[in-house]
């Protein structure tokens, strides 16, 4: 009898724990919107989203430069990071001998573990001066941010693409090879198409990581709230906008930063919902 | 025709090799550069000395203490909640819709940018709850961020526990809860620890969320209600405000060494888990 009571209580506690995640997501939504939404309503979503000028001192809050900035550095990170990451994943599955894999895997885990602020510091100390010396300008740029972000999203792209490439049945490959296709032809025509949903998921996750990254970007991007004209121009992202100004913001400015948070939050939620649309397993398509 | 195929084959192989070399090269470049500049800075005095002159001189002891506090507070909250959630999801939950909602929330939580957690922590914990800038505010904020990791790794670990173990326990008359406490969780323990250790790595490295919630005081915190400056925040401020490049290298070196140790510990535990459940 008593043990049955135990079981009941245990189950309730377990359920409550599991419900925490749901509760927290709702709470985060509530607080971000509660602090930021009135501002958007008052100033008009159009002015806020498509305003070209961000000047808190004058009470002008347009985040278009930051939206464009976030998109630029994210696109840059994907252009550099996706081919490298998928290339690594193919290498790990199709070419690397077991012994090499045993060295590569921890290395990629380490790459994932290095704190973002350390990446940013490395970018600031090495990459920014390097870009300045080669191409001129200040070095703090879209390019610097894209390169650092590309390195940071590599582990995500490698590990998730690797899983899906590894899941391609051996018979598919053997069939292709038996028909006289070369190893690369097999990879290109059979392996990659079969694992494309996993690779797509990897790209979306990498994109989310790049969009949401704050510290590494702040340290190398220059953070000027103007739409950059070239990849050597400085740039400010949505995340940087919040992190840099939150410390001293008050009143309208404070609300505008939460409103920036809403935009960032909505972009990530939309991105995450794409993941649900991507078929998870082989043969789901 | 044949030559084109052969050339493409060669080029492709070169590309694959190049992508691996660039990836590993980036890792090595970062490690070698930072350790090369920073190892000379790290000394006993650096680790145990207090920060002076905004971090220009002295050591990083206050930041080490703050980081340890943050690890403690975040794990005290996230470890039990995460493990129990995972038990619920794997052993108890049966309704598809409930599992779906919890899974979706966990995924969402994992995907939310850390700066959003920072905003939330600031509005909810610092202001609304009145915890002000403190270890407690920072610790709870980070706890929410590591919750998905702990849930996911614990789930994986529980799933690898062979069914026969459970059936044996139940057949001996143990209840479900007893089976979970005495059989399932102990067997999954190395896997659970792996998740916790990886989470510690995340707490150590987290910056954006803590920046808005834990403050950046250079005093040694004496309680969870005190503000503090974690190692990662310290590095950020040293670098961003150009306080001291030398101290920044030293702090970055300590961070990288910590992550190295954490990753090694996680790998050792993971291997242990694999040997424990292989039959």
Automatic annotation (TrEMBL), chain A:
Name of a matching Pfam family: BPD_transp_1
Record-level GO BP terms: phosphate ion transmembrane transport
Origin superkingdom: Bacteria
One GO cellular component term noted in the UniProt record for this chain: plasma membrane
GO molecular function list: phosphate transmembrane transporter activity
Start and end residues of each ABC transmembrane type-1 domain: 67-275
Gene3D superfamilies, sorted: MetI-like
rRNA-binding as UniProt keyword: no
Transmembrane segments: 12-34, 71-96, 108-134, 140-160, 198-221, 256-278
Subcellular location: Cell membrane
Bilayer topology term: Multi-pass membrane protein
Protein name listed in UniProt: Phosphate transport system permease protein PstC
Organism: Desulfocucumis palustris
UniProtKB/TrEMBL annotation, chain B:
Superkingdom: Bacteria
GO MF term (any one): phosphate transmembrane transporter activity
Membrane topology: Multi-pass membrane protein
Keyword Transmembrane assigned: yes
PROSITE patterns: ABC_TM1
Chain ranges of the ABC transmembrane type-1 domain: 64-270
GO biological process terms on file: phosphate ion transmembrane transport
Pfam families: BPD_transp_1 (PF00528)
TM stretches of this protein: 12-40, 60-89, 109-127, 133-151, 183-204, 247-270
Compartment(s) where it occurs, according to its Swiss-Prot or TrEMBL record: Cell membrane
Chief localisation class: membrane
UniProt keyword annotations, A-Z: Cell membrane, Membrane, Transmembrane, Transmembrane helix, Transport
Gene Ontology CC annotations of this record: plasma membrane
UniProt similarity note: Belongs to the binding-protein-dependent transport system permease family. CysTW subfamily.
NCBIfam families, sorted: 3a0107s02c (TIGR00974)
Protein name in the entry: Phosphate transport system permease protein PstA
